[in-house]
User: What shape does this take?
Amino acid sequence: MASKTARLRASDSDRADVCGLLDAALADGQLTESEHTARTGIAMRAKSFGDLDKLIDDLQIPGEMVDAPVVRGGRGRTRWIPAVILAAALIAGGLVGCVAHSAVDRAVADPLPDLTTGAGLAYFIDRYRAEFGDTVADDVTVYPRYALFYRNEKGKSVYYHFDGDFSLFGNPSSRKPDTPTVDMGAIDLPILARLLAGASQSVLLPGSPISHVSIEREDKKGAQPYVQIYVQNEMSETGFMTVLFDGEPLNVRPPNR
Assistant: This one.
């Protein structure tokens, strides 16, 4: 009989954890490309911890992960978060993530995933593209359950709200012709997925949730678009990190630093 833990429903972050481990297993030769592709697709649709455990039970845990266990009470086994290999992944490159799979797969698993996860952000960008025919905005702020953004429509700055559906949020306003824009389609989503998964540890607030993610560009010549990831704990301490669209870190700011 399956244990109570095996029947527990899996969250987006749990699926992302397993996908990170599958990526590591592909990188060190434990899985072939076809095995990785098959398991990653199943992980994206996984409903329970039992479903996820079947995908990693035969894999070795990389030594780099040993110092960052994530344990669920009563699971009877230790699970490991892939955040500790993010730096190595950024340096080595070549890893592929869950977010490379189709938006249809994500929609089947969860009609509105946590938008501050890699899968959730990919879902939002796919929906944005389907709605507007492009992925360009003036700026975007993404929260776990909704997103707010401005975009240029016929020379006006139009403010939108997304919570599974798109709706106007306030009235259109004047917009300067040279207002900087960001193209979300240029974001390296597999890399950003890893950064999002490891953000709480990166800003020294382990286990704390991401409060929001901003996507913007400074209004100055030659400025590159960037992503800022904000993490906040129960005591309202906030840390953040800033990265370029290719994942290059610009700064990491723990609380009170």
